[in-house]
Specification:
One of its GO terms (molecular function) is oxidoreductase activity. This protein is of the alpha/beta class and 260 residues long. The protein is built from 8 helices and 7 strands; from the N terminus they run E-H-E-H-E-H-E-H-H-E-H-E-H-H-E.
Length: 260
């Protein structure tokens, strides 16, 4: 299927690894030109070299810590007139209300919550002037599944879901679509660390983390490619009537509820 994305310019934050790197590959495979932001210059450069070699697309890089003062403005200037913004940077720490103190909570939200909101605020007007654009927020299914042991993340993700739906409910009036994506567990380095932590707490041995996968749908986490492909479709004109909603990719985890 031709997704009609060839030649479009896509900004991906947190692009150097995990889902971010997978998104870069998926959009490049569709012929998109990329503007990539992440803290690690070395990882970004290695990613860019591979993308240019494999797909022949244009790749611009901005190595930057997006929590620094003035960083959002720098990213918006770097991005220019992008067709698609993918907010992906940041990870909110796990733990209960007392594990995550006020400083850690605010630090986690600075990038994952306020960073998303501030970058949308900066880029949306340029899209509105052109009368078109797509904004995709990578959120996470923790916002649908309030978790005592992931309280900062559950709360932050729920806030981003509300933000996405509130903005996307009106954004088509400006020619812009705003959509959230809620991945569940995804096979990245981050989920491997989370599973080890859970295995240590629940089973007394972090090396038994693979046993926890048995409870996931199909006995595994989602692949990066399974998640990235959905982002690319949602960004495309094939999904032109989609806005103000959240798409969940978790194998049914969020829906697997029972009263018995």
């Amino acid at each position: 299927m031709d997704l009609k994305l060839s030649g479009q310019r896509v900004l991906v934050t947190g692009a150097s690894q995990g889902i971010g790197a997978g998104l870069a590959h998926a959009f490049a495979a569709e012929g998109c030109h990329l503007a990539l932001v992440a803290r690690s210059a070395d990882k970004l450069q290695a990613l860019a070299d591979g993308l240019i070699s494999d797909y022949g697309v244009q790749v611009s890089l901005l190595p930057l810590d997006m929590t620094l003062p003035g960083a959002i403005e720098r990213v918006a200037e770097f991005a220019g007139d992008v067709d698609v913004l993918v907010n992906n940077a940041g990870a909110i720490p796990g733990g209960d209300l007392w594990d995550v103190d006020a400083q850690a909570w605010r630090k986690g939200w600075e990038l994952k919550v306020f960073g998303y909101i501030d970058l949308v605020r900066a880029i949306y007007p340029r899209m509105k002037t052109r009368g078109r654009g797509v904004i995709l927020n990578n959120i996470g299914n923790g916002g649908q599944n309030p978790d005592f042991n992931y309280i900062a993340g559950s709360t932050g993700n729920a806030a981003l879901m509300a933000f996405t739906c509130a903005l996307g409910g009106r954004s088509l009036e400006d020619g812009i679509r705003v959509i959230g994506v809620n991945p569940g567990p995804v096979a990245t380095e981050r989920i491997a660390k989370v599973l080890k932590s859970h295995a240590a707490r629940l089973l007394g041995d972090e090396n038994r983390s693979s046993e926890l996968l048995a409870a996931y749908p199909r006995g595994r986490a989602a692949t990066v490619e399974e998640v990235a492909d959905v982002f690319v479709y949602l960004a495309s004109p094939r999904s032109s009537y989609t806005s103000g909603t959240i798409v969940t990719i978790d194998g049914g985890i969020s829906s697997k509820r029972s009263v018995a």
